[in-house]
Amino acid sequence: GNVELVDIDDGVVKLRLVGSCASCSSSTMTLKMGIEKALKKAVPMVRCIEAVE
User: Fold this and answer.
1) Fewest beta carbons less than 10 Å away: which of 6, 25, 30, 34?
2) pLDDT digits over 1-27, tens only?
3) Residue 21 near residue 2, CB atoms below 8 Å
């Protein structure tokens, strides 16, 4: 699966999970422990991420 960037507003990054990631039971864990952690490290202005449909 893939992740699409939908929006960034005031440090909140909105992402859409597509393909096999959209229905994966581990997608929330992937977002929080993988993507959010990496984004916060690389881009300090990121406060959190949200999954959108």
Assistant:
1) 25
2) 889 999 999 999 999 988 887 778 788
3) yes
